[in-house]
C-alpha cells in the first residue's frame, strides 16, 4: 500500500493558497445555503452556473493539453537548432584547417620567390663577368690592329731595300689588311654583344624588381591569412556561445513545459474543489438518501483528484528547482564566452 501524502511534505505557499481557497469555498457554501433558503429559482440558476463552471474547467483542461503539445513541439525544434549549431561549428573547424593550409602554401611561394631572386642575382653576376671578358677581347683586337700597322711600315721599308721581296711584302700587306678587316668586324660584333649584355642586365634588374614585388604581395597574403585565422577563431568562440545558448533554450523549453504541467495540475485542483463544493451543496440541499451516494462519489473523486494533483505538483516543483540551478550554471558559463 502506498503511503498517503502528509501536509508536511507539501509547499507551505501551496498549502496557504489551498486554505485560502477552502475559506473562499466555505463562504460560497454559506451564500449557497442562504440562496437555498430564499427559493428554488435561485438554486436552478446556481446549478446552471455550476454546469457552466464545469464546462469552463473542461475547456481549460483541453487548452492546457494543447499547450503541452506545443511545448513538446518547441523542444523538438530546439533540438534541431542544436544540431544545426553543431554542424556550423564543424564547418568553422574545417575553415580553420583550410586557412592553415593556405598559410603553408603562401610560405612555400615566398621561398620560391626568394630562390628566384637568388637566381636573378647570379645571372647578373654572370653578365658582368661576360662584359669584362668582352672588354678584354676588344683590347686584344686593338693591340692586333696596332701590330698590323707596324708590320705594314716594316713592309714598306723592306720594299725600298729589297725589291725582289715586294711581291711577298704586298701579299703580306693584303693579308694584314684582311686581318684588319676581320678585326674590325670582330670589334663590331663585340660591341653588339656588349649592347646585348647590357640589355640582358636591364632585363635581369626588371626581373629582380618583379621578384621583390612578388615577395611583398606574398607577405601581404600571409598577413591576410593571419587575419582570417583570427576571424575563424572568433567564429569558433561565437559558435560555442551559440551552443550554450541552444542548451539554455532547451532548458527554458523544459521549464516552460513544467510550468504548463503546473497549470494543468492547478486546473485539476480547481476541478476537485468544484466537485467537493458541488457534492456538499447537493447534500445540504437534498439531504441524505440514496442520491447522497452520488454526492459522496463526487466529493471522493474531488479529493482523489486534489491529492494526486498536489503530489504531482510537488514533484514538478522539485524538477523546476533543479532546472533553475542548471540555468544559473549555464548563465555563468555563457558569461565566460561573452567577448570583452
Give an overview in words:
This protein has 340 residues and is mainly α. It has a single domain (7-337), classed as Helix Hairpins (Orthogonal Bundle). Helices cover 93% and strands 0% of the residues. The chain is built from four helices and no strands. The chain has helices at 12-38, 40-161, 166-286, 292-337. Helix 1 packs across helix 3 (166-286), helix 2 runs antiparallel to helix 3 and helix 3 (166-286) packs antiparallel against helix 4. The longest helix has 122 residues, at 40-161. The model is unreliable at 1-5 (pLDDT under 50).
List the topology elements.
Layout: H1 12-38, H2 40-161, H3 166-286, H4 292-337
Structure at a glance:
With 340 residues, the chain is mainly α. It is 93% helix and 0% strand.
